[in-house]
Design goal:
By secondary structure, the protein is α/β, with parallel strands linked by helices. The protein folds into two domains: 6-44 and 290-396, Aspartate Aminotransferase, domain 1; 48-285, Aspartate Aminotransferase, domain 2. Helix content is 42%, strand content 14%. Strand 6 (200-204), helix 9 (220-223) and strand 7 form a beta-alpha-beta unit.
Length: 397
């Protein structure tokens, strides 16, 4: 007899965290490893946010339980921030504050999915999405994209994937892992398709402020207002404000869905840590100066990574449009000897590169699309250049 439930036994570990953990373990043993696996900014949390948390620690009110759905002042600030940044108007009662963006994702699927409901999930996808869908009782329906399409799903593909069990479309722009950003016209077309089909949309906007060049973020329910009653927005402070460790996210949706989700959270976790909530309040209500500084650095690194990856024999890469990832095509490195070893897939290639060059990246299989790899540029300019130089030198052997 299995000691754990079939539901939990079926969960795959996070491949991105696994790669990061293996690289850190090698570093701890004295290896000079450069990691491209991290899904978090390499900047510290802005000081005014830290200062707000320090003050909050001494306030006895923060030593007690607070409302399960989030502190009222934070929910008001999130609603105001959403209007400011994306033009979407919502009431504080439509906001649920969660324990990080992952918790918002899981709660959103739990709120919408009954057993057997299908969720259209374009690939490549963030590794957590299919697991959250399955845990909620849903069935992931994966729709592949590729570099030729800019890693963007089309309305025609959505039509082909649609069945009478389709309940939800997952939409992400800017995208992890591909770095793709949908145009306003494409966002509108997909939103209008979902509205016409009566399909819910869960739109993950965690990278909203990280776009580069002419590419811009638009929120689907803003450009398709009629979709607001069948749409859930998930977001958080992690990427925008370099606050991955503070664990504050949120979901925004119709009041009945948010009420049910709040009831769920009241039994699952109660409130998010109050000190973290007060730090998040300072973040979302404060200036975006530090965000723009990070974005400038990421934009510079994106160009460097794009150029250096494309200079390596066997690698082709689209220029990242958003987030902080490049997603190069690595098929040119497969089935050929590299320093005496031949990799037949990108899982094997990632292990080869880590072992021989001491460079870590996440293989495309982790994101449902083998043949590619995710390289984060959330690391210093010097480490970025040295890491890619090592890959180039290894491939040339």
């Amino acid at each position: 007899m299995n000691r754990t439930s079939a539901r939990l036994a079926a969960i795959a570990p996070s491949a991105t965290l696994a790669v990061d953990a293996k690289a850190k373990a090698m570093k701890a043993e004295g290896e000079n490893v450069i990691g491209f696996g991290a899904g978090e900014p390499d900047f510290g949390t802005p000081q005014h946010i830290v200062d707000a948390a320090i003050v909050a620690c001494s306030d006895v009110k923060n030593h007690r339980y607070s409302p399960a759905g989030g502190r009222p002042e934070l929910k008001e600030a999130i609603a105001a921030k959403t209007m400011r940044d994306s033009g979407f108007e919502c009431a504080p009662s439509q906001v649920l504050v969660t324990n990080g963006g992952k918790h918002a994702v899981y709660t959103a699927f739990a709120a919408l999915c009954d057993p057997g409901d299908e969720v259209i999930c374009p690939a490549p996808y963030w590794t957590t999405y299919p697991e959250a869908i399955t845990l909620a009782g849903g069935v992931p329906v994966v729709v592949d994209t590729d570099a030729a399409s800019g890693f963007q799903v089309t309305v025609e593909q959505l039509d082909a994937a649609y069945t009478d069990r389709t309940k939800v479309l997952l939409f992400v722009s800017p995208d992890n892992p591909s770095g793709s950003v949908y145009s306003p016209e494409a966002v509108r077309a997909i939103g209008e398709w979902a509205l016409a089909k009566g399909v819910w949309v869960i739109t993950d906007e965690i990278y909203e402020h990280l776009t580069y060049g002419a590419h811009e973020f638009v929120s689907m329910p803003t450009v398709v207002p009629g979709l607001a009653d069948q749409c859930i927005i998930v977001n958080g402070v992690a990427k925008t404000y370099a606050m991955t460790g503070w664990r504050v996210g949120w979901m925004i949706g119709p009041q009945d869905v948010v009420k049910a989700s709040t009831n769920f959270q009241s039994h699952a976790t109660s409130n998010v840590a109050n000190v973290s909530q007060m730090a998040a309040l300072a973040a979302v209500a404060g200036p975006l100066d530090a965000v723009y500084e990070m974005r400038t650095a990421f934009a510079r690194r994106a160009k460097t990574m794009h150029a250096m990856l494309n200079a390596i024999d066997g690698i082709t890469c689209l220029e990242p449009q958003g987030a902080f990832y490049a997603y190069p095509d690595l098929t040119g490195l497969l089935n050929r000897p590299i320093d005496g070893v031949t990799a037949t897939n990108t899982l094997e290639l990632a292990d080869l590169v880590l072992g021989k060059a001491k460079v870590a990246f996440v293989p495309g299989e982790a994101f449902g699309l083998g043949g590619y790899g995710r390289f984060s540029f959330a690391l210093s300019d010097d480490d970025l250049a040295e890491g890619l130089d090592r890959v180039a030198a290894l491939v040339a052997k």
